[in-house]
Design a protein that fits this description.
elongated; alpha+beta; 6 helices; 279 residues
């Protein structure tokens, strides 16, 4: 018969001595302890199951409380993170955090709060901009100017914030314009002129209303004087050298201002120049 040798450490010996010194038979009644908990337990297995379930419930409830506390704390402690986009020269297109795109003209400025933009797509605009907004029904896209507020879910539209008015033009979808003088819903091909005292809605009668965004211009038997005015408005340049006879021209063109002026000079034999490039 093989003998099993048990080697006790000094810690083990002290533990045994403590038990031997303090143990009293019958001093602890497990059944009586369970009865105080008022839990009808008929077996030790059932008691272990109850303990395990109670412990699991405590862990789940405690974890939920901690997670909720952390979420609330992080939300309340989120600091504002303002972002400013600007255009100092040629038209500039930016990609916003929600994948919407905005094109700013020279001198325009746009600001939003990065820390809240995912939940609240709220923008402040100073100047002229074109928006191609990503659709999101749960988070409306809002553009604020000094005069009006423009609210959309997903569409393509332009906003021009001037000193005394805000002009909104819709290329696709619908937008809502709100100002001190009222509220109006705009659809594709319509525009609104909002001031502190009036809100006027009308059809967009300019075929080149969005030419400054995509560079596509269209002139249908148009006098050169009006063509020059469109070039200056669309491209933000100053054109000189207009002849006195004011000929008319039909032209469909895509390109920059200098290329367009060169094309007109070639077709009409004129000597138009962009002032900044005049010799």
């Amino acid at each position: 018969m093989q003998e099993n040798n048990i080697n006790l450490t000094s810690t083990d010996e002290r533990s045994l001595q403590f038990v031997a010194r303090h143990y009293r038979q019958g001093a602890f009644d497990a059944g009586q302890a369970w009865s105080k908990l008022d839990i009808p337990c008929t077996s030790s297995y059932y008691r272990r199951r109850v303990i395990a379930i109670a412990a699991a419930v405590i862990v789940i409830v405690g974890s939920a409380f901690v997670i909720r506390h952390l979420i609330n704390s992080s939300s309340s402690l989120a600091e504002p993170h303002p972002v400013t986009l600007a255009c100092n020269d040629a038209n500039t297109t930016y990609l916003l955090p929600d994948d919407s795109r905005v094109t700013l003209t020279r001198g325009a400025r746009l600001t939003y709060d990065m820390s809240t933009f995912a939940e609240k797509r709220d923008i402040t605009l100073d100047g002229r901009a074109f928006f191609d907004v990503t659709h999101n029904e749960s988070s409306p896209f809002t553009v604020n100017t000094d005069v009006a507020t423009v609210t959309v879910l997903g569409t393509r539209f332009a906003v021009n914030d001037e000193s005394q008015s805000t002009i909104v033009q819709v290329q696709e979808g619908k937008v809502e314009v709100t100002c001190p003088s009222g509220t109006a819903t705009l659809e594709r091909g319509t525009m609104a002129i909002a001031t502190d005292s009036a809100l006027k809605v009308q059809a967009i009668d300019d075929v080149n209303a969005f030419a400054w965004v995509d560079g596509n211009v269209e002139f249908d038997n148009m006098p050169l004087s009006k063509i020059v005015g469109t070039i200056e408005r669309v491209y933000g340049v100053n054109v000189i050298g207009l002849p006195q006879n004011d000929p008319s021209l039909t032209l469909y063109f895509k390109g920059d201002a200098q290329q367009l002026v060169n094309e007109i000079n070639s077709l009409l034999g004129t000597q138009l120049k962009i002032a900044d490039n005049a010799q």
